[in-house]
Amino acid sequence: MHTSPSQQILKTLAPYQGLIFDMDGTLIDSMPGHLAAWEITAQHYHFPFDNDWLYSLGGMPGDCIVELINQKYALQLDPPQVSQFRMETFAQFKNSTNLITITNQILNYYYQAKKLAVGTGSPRSHAVPVLKQTGLFNKLDAIATASDVSKHKPHPDTFLLAAQQMGLEPTSCIVFEDTILGMEAAHQAGMHCFLLENNELILHPNDTPIN
């Protein structure tokens, strides 16, 4: 039996037809594994490991992060090669598919009552197996991944595509995220955003009014 979300959150979510969740760090507690994989990758390719900075880039595809590493440290790393190494390293961590309780309570509460989607910066080849492994895949009406858009978070394309796949207007959807980058993408899409901060969901409204 799933515990219900708080009455305040239920009241906030009542007007919305669609809920869009980021995956890593929002539905699934995979960020420690991702950061550990980045640390090993940094050692392997000899670039500085900045935990807080890399966490802030959660939701951005690996290739794009390597491009930013090149800019930040004046390097010439090969983005696909380094990103592939990082993903293969991450795959070795066995405990990176634990579910985050507070967001999964909401997803389970609204399963079959509202449209549910994932909007992730992970490639489809990674996201779909993880969503299947965690039992989330069959609960979703839409999955928008980094493989499906050319502009990634903080651009709005991922969340706009998720809304489109659900057959909903952006203003009928609300986003759940764990990074400022993802929140910016939600706001750019014209959506309000709950940000997961210290295991609490804090509402960050967009300037666009709710319908």
Would you write up a description of this structure?
The protein has 211 residues and is an alpha/beta fold. It has 2 domains: 7-30 and 97-204, 3-Layer(aba) Sandwich (Rossmann fold); 31-90, DNA polymerase, domain 1 (Orthogonal Bundle), CATH 1.10.150. 43% of the residues lie in helices and 13% in strands. The protein is built from 9 helices and 6 strands. It has a 6-stranded mixed sheet, with helices on both faces. Helix 7 (124-133) links the parallel strand 2 and strand 3. Helix 2 crosses helix 5 and helix 4 (62-73) packs across helix 5. The protein starts with 6 loop residues before the first helix and ends in a 7-residue tail after the last strand.
Characteristic terms for this protein:
211 residues; alpha/beta; Rossmann fold; DNA polymerase, domain 1; six-stranded mixed beta sheet; 9 helices; 6 strands; 43% helix; 13% strand; globular
Whole-number count of domains: 2
Helix content: 40-55%
Please write the CATH class name of the largest domain. Alpha Beta
Class per helix and strand makeup: alpha/beta
End-to-end distance: 33 Å
Radius of gyration: 17 Å
The CATH topology of the largest domain corresponds to Rossmann fold
The run of helices and strands is HEHHHHHEHEHEHEE
CATH architecture of the largest domain: 3-Layer(aba) Sandwich
> Roughly what is the average pLDDT, rounded to an integer?
93
Instruction: Note the overall shape.
Output: globular
Give a quick precis of the structure:
This protein is α/β, with parallel strands linked by helices.
